[in-house]
Design brief:
Layout lengths: L3 E4 L2 E4 L4 E7 L7 E8 L6 E6 L6 E3 L7 E6 L4 E6 L8 E9 L10 E2 L3 E6 L1
Parallel strand pairs: 2-11
Antiparallel strand pairs: 1-3, 3-8, 4-5, 4-9, 5-6, 7-8, 9-10, 9-11
Length: 122
């Protein structure tokens, strides 16, 4: 089992940047595929980005492609989401998620963090 704790959210103006971090517990972090999802008020949770256990493969939602970058540091048990050129529509609670094995963009991650709020003002 793995526990996830997000940090780095906050209030930023449109066009600005934020970097989210997600620290994980457990000694098998390098075996987990990791992802970021987000949920805006009144909307369903949606996929943002994912990274394979090795870090060799990454996937992005079309809405963030070219602006967001997911990365991981297996030595620090941490996954990151660098968010640039932020837009008001990026406002949401961002969740880190983990699953053993194969990367997926679908809502099939059994382990979740508590979320961190990102607010982008216009």
């Amino acid at each position: 089992q793995v526990q996830l704790v997000e940090s780095g959210g906050g209030l930023v103006q449109a066009g600005g940047s934020l970097r989210l971090s997600c620290a994980a517990s457990g000694r098998t972090f390098s075996s987990y595929a990791l992802a970021w999802f987000r949920q805006a008020p009144g909307k369903e949770r949606e996929f943002v980005a994912a990274i394979a256990s090795s870090g060799g493969s990454t996937y992005y939602a079309d809405s963030v492609k070219g602006r967001f970058t997911i990365s991981r540091d297996n030595a620090k048990n941490t996954v990151y989401l660098q968010m640039n050129s932020l837009k008001p529509e990026d406002t949401a609670v961002y969740f880190c998620a983990a699953r053993w094995g194969v990367i997926t963009t679908e809502y099939k991650y059994p382990y979740w963090g508590q979320g961190t709020q990102v607010t982008v003002s216009s």
